[in-house]
Design goal:
Strand content: 25-35%
CATH architecture: 3-Layer(aba) Sandwich
Strand order of the largest sheet: 12-6-7-5-2-13-14-1-15
Bound molecules: S-adenosylmethionine
CATH superfamily: Vaccinia Virus protein VP39
Radius of gyration: 20 Å
């Protein structure tokens, strides 16, 4: 089946947002899509945790064992990154979400694909909660690698300002430079930097679906707000519980979600229905 003609309309002028969920291997889904359609692709693939990922409702959600083996994981990832790359529009962005296990390898793969000048940011998503290690510093962050095909990708920093810290003297009265020039705080808040403190989804969180490794809406809302414009098409080809799709829908962006797991695509479909009143169909590739 081919999906080349899903998006007829000019992305920048789309007046009604919505999307499609496709179940299948992102490798095949990517090769069935029209090149250049996405402003942003967010990819949160298996992390090489060495575990079967079990959901609270669906049982086995997806297998992340790889026999604990980088040699089988990395070529798998590389092939899929290569297939996804042509789907970005000329000023489109890819954000690849991984952790300490593989992020350094992935950075090399992405430098090869985009050229080292395609690298824009390494965003650290820092969270707390969960257990603490007595053998080493506890691992409490993931890494999001942002690459673009353009030196000037869409970047709406004003859309993701945050309040100044209450203890900030600058926020209270600004500062005066040696030249005598006075700098005042921006009433819209301060631009976020590349370390993001966003809570993980705790067991009581309202947005919790039970799908394993679900990411917070706040994380995806920040990425989508900053890296796309309303009406753009956002892709998540490992969409899991559908966090990206729900965030995109809520922010007035079009979206396309893909996942190989039936539990994932069904979870995403239900979430869109309940959280956005959005009826999405699931296509099988
Ligand atoms: C880390 S989870 C994504 C979680 C998601 N971001 C969320 O918030 O729920 C990784 C997902 O990649 C999917 N996946 C694994 N191999 C895939 C493949 N070849 N093609 C598409 N999806 C795949 C898994 O089924 C799983 O849902």
């Amino acid at each position: 089946m081919h999906f080349r003609n899903i998006w007829h309309k000019n992305l920048a002028t789309a007046d009604k947002t919505g999307g499609r969920i496709i179940r299948g291997d992102m490798l095949h889904v990517a090769s069935s899509l029209t090149p250049g359609i996405f402003r942003l692709i967010y990819l949160d693939p298996p992390f090489l945790t060495g575990r079967e990922q079990i959901g609270s409702k669906e049982g086995l959600a997806y297998d992340d064992r790889w026999a604990g083996n980088l040699d089988s994981y990395l070529p798998w990832l590389q092939k899929r990154l290569q297939a996804i790359f042509p789907l970005l529009c000329s000023d489109g962005s890819l954000v690849l979400h991984l952790d300490w296990r593989t992020t350094h390898h992935a950075r090399v793969l992405l430098d090869d694909l985009f050229g080292h000048e395609g690298f824009i940011n390494e965003i650290i998503w820092h969270y707390t909660g969960g257990g603490r290690s007595k053998r080493r510093f506890s691992c409490k962050h993931d890494t999001l690698l942002w690459y673009s095909r353009s030196q000037k990708p869409v970047f709406n920093i004003d859309a993701v300002r945050q309040p100044y810290k209450q203890t900030s003297g600058y926020a209270r009265s600004g500062i005066v430079a040696a030249s005598g020039r006075k700098y005042l705080p921006d009433p819209r808040g301060t631009p976020v930097d590349d370390v993001w403190d966003i809570p993980i989804i705790n067991p009581m969180a309202l947005e919790r679906t039970g799908y394993p490794t679900q990411k917070p809406l706040a994380l995806l809302q920040r990425l989508i707000s900053a890296l796309t414009n309303p009406g753009d098409l956002v892709g998540d080809l490992c969409c899991g519980s559908g966090t990206t799709l729900v965030s995109a829908q809520q922010l007035g962006r079009n979206w396309l979600g893909c996942d190989i797991s039936e539990a994932a695509t069904e979870c995403a479909r239900q979430r869109l229905q309940h959280e956005c009143s959005c009826e999405a169909s699931i296509e099988n590739l």
